[in-house]
Amino acid sequence: MRRIYSLALVGALTTAACVGSIGDGGAPSGGPGASNDDGGTASIDGGAGAVTTQSCGSSYAPGHVAIHRLTNDEYDNTVDDLLFTTATPGTGFDPSPAGASGFSNDSDALIISDDLIAAYYTAAETLAKGVIATKGTSGGAYSKIVTCAPSTTCAQTVVTSLATRAYRRPAAADEVTTLMGVYAKDTDFDTGIQDVINAILVNPKFIFVTATGAQSQTAGAAFAIDDYALASRLSYALWQTMPDATLFQLAQAGVLHQPATLQAQVSRMLKDSRVSRMLKSLRNDWAALLTMADPNGHLVGLGDDVRAAMVGEVDAFLQDLVTKDKSFLQVLTGNYAFVNQTMATYYGIPFTGSDPNAYVQVGLPVHRTGLVTTPGIMTGTAGDVAYTHPVHRGHWITQKITCTPPSPPPQNTNETFTNPSTTGESPREALAQHTSNPACAGCHANMDVLGLGLENYDMFGKWRTTYPNVPGTIDPSGTLPPPSSKPFSDALSMYADLAADDDTRACLAQQIMAYVVTRALSSPDDQCVVKAIGTTSVTPTGSFSETVSMIVQSRQFLMQTGEAP
Amino acid sequence: MSWKIQRRHLITGAGAVFLLPLLEKFFPKQALAAGNSDPRRFVSLYMPNGTYNVKGDAVWYPQNLQTGALSASSFSQRSVFAPFTGEVGNFSILMHPSCSARDTAASSVPDGGGHVSAITTFLAQAPFTDVNSSQCTVPGSSFDQMVADTVGKPNLVMSGGCNDANPDGIAFNYADYVSFNNGQPNEPHKNPVELYKAMFASLVPTPMAPIPAAARNHSILDSSLSDIKDLQSKLGKTDNQKLDAYMTSVRNLETRIFTPPSAATGCKPGGPPPETVDNVDLDGSLSNVYDQRIQAFFDMVVLAFECDLVRSVSFTYDGETCGRQNNPCPSNLVYDNADLTGQLHIGISHYGQNSNGDIKCISRDRNYLSLFFYLLDALKQANDPSGSPILDNTVVLAGYNVTDGQHTGNAEGTPLIVGGGRNFMHPGNCFELNYADLKDVLFTFSTFLNLGWSNFRGSSNVLSI
Lengths: 565, 465
Fold this sequence. Notes:
- The structure holds 2 protein chains of 2 kinds.
- Chain A is built from 28 helices and 10 strands.
- Chain A is mainly alpha-helical.
- In chain A, the strands form 5 sheets. Chain A has a two-stranded parallel ribbon with strand order 1-2.
- In chain A, strand 8 (about 480) and strand 9 (about 485-490) form a beta hairpin.
- By secondary structure, chain B is α/β, with parallel strands linked by helices.
- Chain B has 14 helices and 10 strands.
- Chain B has helices at about 5-10, 20-25, 100-110, 115-120, 145-150, 190-200, 210-215, 220-230, 235-260, 290-305, 345-350, 355-380, 405-410, 440-450, and strands at about 40-45, 70, 90-95, 155-160, 180, 185, 310-315, 395-400, 415-420, 430.
- The interface of A and B includes residues 118, 182, 186, 198 and 207 of A.
C-alpha cells in the first residue's frame, strides 16, 4: 500500500490547507516493512510549498542516528515509568561527556563499558527486588505490574506487557519465549517475575533505542522508521523517557507519523512538565552550565547561593520561552529577565516578587540582552574565577551561536593567558599576537573578537568598564567575522547583529535539532535543513514549538539512512 | 645458533677466543628448553656509581677468572657473590666486555669522569651527539626502546631516584639518560606508587556489588546475549560495533560472576606499594626505604610481565653523585665489618680515596646484587602461560660501564652479569667475552628474544652465552 509522508516543513505547519492535503492512505505504519522512498512500499514526498523541499530537494539524506544507549537520566526516567518507582540508580553510573553534537545525549558518544554493564546489572537486581518488595502494598509497583493471579498464564501476560513497554514496541513471540525461559528457571512465581524484570533491564533492546527497518543494512538507503521508533525518538527527545500511553496508542494505530498528529503531540508534550528535562540539557550543554549547576560544586569567589540563583535564572528563562512558546531567538534578543531576590540584588534592581526564592519576570537589566549575557552564562564561559578568558567566551559563541567552531589547537600550543591585572596589559593587547601570527590568526581572528566583545562582563558576569590595575577603559568593539563583517560597538550591538543574521538563526536551530536527533549535523543536507528551519522559525515572530515541529517532521527525524552490515 | 667474533678480538684476545666455539659444544641447542609461545623479555639494571673489580682482586669475576659452570666454590669470601651462592644457577658472568661507543664518546668531549659516556651508551650503544648543552642526545633509540617498539608494547623505564642537580659539572642529570627514544631520553619513573597507578589501576577490578540473581539464574545473561545477536542481524556495521562492545562487557561480567575467586590467573594486581614509598627520593634522604622502594619497582616488573603489559624494562639504581646513605645495608651483606654508616654513595664508589673503600664498595655492591637476585627470584616464582617460570623467558642484564681509575682503578674489566633466560641462554656459567663489544652482547639478546633484527648498531655477532 502506497503512503505519502509530507515533510512540508513550513506550509504544513502554518496553513490548514497544506496540512489537509497530506495523504496518509490510512495505513498503519508500525512494524516491519515500514515505508521507504527507495523502491519500497511507499514514498516520501514534499508537500506543496514545503520550504525544505524547495530548499533542499525532495529526497535529501536523513543521515544515520546510531543506536542510542540510554543516557543516565534517560535510564532513570525510563525505569521509573516502567516500574512505577522513583529510584535514580543512573545518578551513580559513570557520566557521559558531550559528543560532537555538543550534547550529552549524542548517540555516537554514548558508549558501553565494563563498569557500566556491571552497574546496569547491579541496578537491575535492586530494581527488580524493589518491585517484588511492594507486593501487598496498595498502589505499589507490584500491583501495577502483576494484574492477575499467579500462574504460568499470568506470567506470560506480565512478561508480554513488561517487554512491550520496556522495548517500546510490541514484544515479538520469540522475545516473550526467551523471557519465559528466564521465568521458568525459578520455582516460584515472584522470583520468576523478579528475574524477568532483571533480564529485561539488562537487555540491549531496553538499554538501546533502535530504529530498524527492512533497509537498515542497505548502505545509503533512506527509509522511514516505524511509528513505534518514532514514538521513542519523540519521547526521548522531549521528555527523556519512554513513550507514554498516548504515544503508544498512536503508534499502535499507525497514525503517529501523520504531520497533524505529530504537530499535536509536539504541542502536547511541550506543555508537559517533563519537557523541563530537555531544558535542563539545553542549560547544561548549550548554555555551558553543567559545572555551575552541580549542587555539590563550588566556585571560588562566588557564593553557592548566587551560583544557584544564576542557574535558576537561566532555567526560568528557558522555561518561560517554552511555556509561552516564544522563539528561540529570544536567547539573543529577549528584552526581559527573570530574577529571584538574590539575582535582583546581584543586578542591583528591586525585587518585586513575594517569594524571595521564586523567579519573576522583570525588565531587562541595563547592559543585558536575552539569555546570553546573563551572569550564569558569563560565569560558565569565563574560563576562570580570577579573570576572564576572552578566547573561552569567543569559543563558546562559535560553537553555540554561530556554529563556526575552530579546529582544535595544534599540539604544544601555549594556552597560557595571564591575568591582565598582573601584567598591566589588557586582554586585547595580549591577544593581538593571535591575529598577528599567521599560524594562530585563522582561528583566533574569529574567536577573539567575539570574546573581547564580552569583556564588559567580569568572570562572574558583573558589568565593568575597567580592569583592575590596567590603564584605560575596556574596549569591547570589533567587527563580526565574515561573511557578516559588521562592525559592533559593544556586546549588545554584537548580539543584535548576530541575531539578525540568517546563519545565526540556522545555528540556533541546529542546536535544538542536534539535541533532538541526538547526533551532530554536519552533512550538506543537514545544513540545508537547519537553515530552512532556522530562517523560518528562529525569527522574531517564530516559536519554539514551530522549531521543534519542523525538526520532527524533517527526514532527519522521521527517517534513517541504512548502513552496510 | 652461530657465533661470530670481530677480527680485532681475534688479535687482541687470541688466548681466549677459542673458548667460544667450545662453549657452543657444551651447550647444544637441543639442551635448551623447547620453544613455546611465551613472551620473551629484556630487563636492564644499571649501576651508575662505580664498582670494585681491580686486577688481582676481581671480586665480580670468579676466582682465577675461571670460565665454565659456576658453583659456590667459584667465589671467595671476598667476592661480591659470596652471599648469593644459592643463586649460581640463575645467572652468568660475562667477563671482559668492551664498549666502543663509550670509548668513542669519552674521547670526544668532557663527560663527567667517564660517567656520561658510560651510562648513555650502555643501552644506546652509540656516542652521544652533544653533551655540552642542557642535555645529550643519541642517534636513534636505545636497545630497550627498540625491543619495546619491535614487540609493540611500552618501554618501562625506572630509577631509584637519587640524583644531583649538577653532577660533575654536567648540565643535565645524566643518571636519567640510560634509555632513549628517537634520540631523546626516556624520563624514568621514580615513584613506585605513581607507577603502580599508571600501570595497574585500570586492571584492578572495581569492587562490584553482588548480583546473586544473575549468578543464580544464568538465563538472565543468556537472554541478553541472544538478543544482541538478534539486533546485530538487523543493524549496520557501526551500530554492531557498539553491540559488540556490549557483548564483550557482558562476557567480562559473566567471567567476574562465574569465575571462582580462587582460580589462578597470572595477572592479578594487588594493592599499590606501601605509602612509605609514595614519594620520589631525589636527594637520597629517604635511604631508609631504599631497598623497599627498589623491591616495589621490581615487584611491578614481575606483575607487568605477568599481565604482559611490557616486555622491556630499564632500571637505574641511582644517580652517580647523589646523597644516598648506605648504612641501611643488611648485615648479612656487609663484608669484613665495613662500616657504611654515613657513607655516601659517591664516597664509597671512589674507594681509592676512602678509608677501607674497597670493603665498603664490596658491601654496597652486594646490596645492589641482593636486589638483582630479589628480582630474579620473583621472576622465578611467576609463571608464563606455558607454565615456564617467567625468569626462564627473560634476559636480566646488570652491569656498570665506567672504566676510569677511581672506580675500577686498574680494572680487571667492567662487571657484566646476565640472569634468567634458561629457555634460550645458559645461566650458571662464566663466559669469557674476550672484549667482545657490548653491542654484540645486545644483538645476541635480540636473537634470544626472537626480534628478527638483522643487526644492532651494526653488529650481527651472535655470542654463545
